[in-house]
Amino acid sequence: MSDGKWDQAKGKAREGLGKLTNDKKQESKGKAEQGSGKVKEKVSDTRDSVEGATEGIRESFSEDKDKNRR
Question: What pLDDT, in 10s, does the model give residues 12-24?
């Protein structure tokens, strides 16, 4: 489980506990933790996409370089 998913799960549990005990502070902390987890997940997904695109570009240049050597 990624950090982002883990934070979302913990936040959901904290929010639920806050609702159950009528503790608005814990409920709010849980919602914030879920939001933070979603941001972490998006950043991770974006980083993976950029790394994939970068690798694709590198491979493309490498293939072009090999073709020019022949």
Answer: 999 999 999 999 9
Contact 57, 41 (CB under 8 A): no
- In angstroms, the CA 20 to CA 28 distance is 13
Contact 33, 7 (CB under 8 A): yes
* Model confidence, pTM: 0.71
In angstroms, the CA 41 to CA 26 distance is 22
Q: Where are the domains of the chain?
A: 3-69
pLDDT in tens, 22-31: 999 999 999 9
Separation CA 64–CA 59 (nearest Å) = 9
